[in-house]
Structure prediction request, 95 residues.
Amino acid sequence: MSLARAQWAEEHRVILDFIKPGKSTQNAFIKSSNRTYRTETLDFYLFRTLNEVREITERWLTEYNSERPHESLNNLTLEEYRLMAEKWKFQKGWK
Prediction:
């Protein structure tokens, strides 16, 4: 890990937590979303500028988080699931 990343994490009070070697299932969500992003965006377009990458990525993220139902979330979007979880935490009095 780079020293710069460790310093940034410390300055921003971020705890870095790494998966154990050989335990890729601990990282399954990230691996799935990375694969989806790669196949639907990076492999699909021939980008001409960095701004084009940013714009297309932003559109993809909006769709992925707000419009696309996820089977693992009982066909809710990530946004719907987040709102439901926040409501549940509020009802339980959790912070």
Summary: Residues 70 and 76 are 6 Å apart (CA to CA). The helical segments are 3-11, 28-42, 50-67, 78-92.
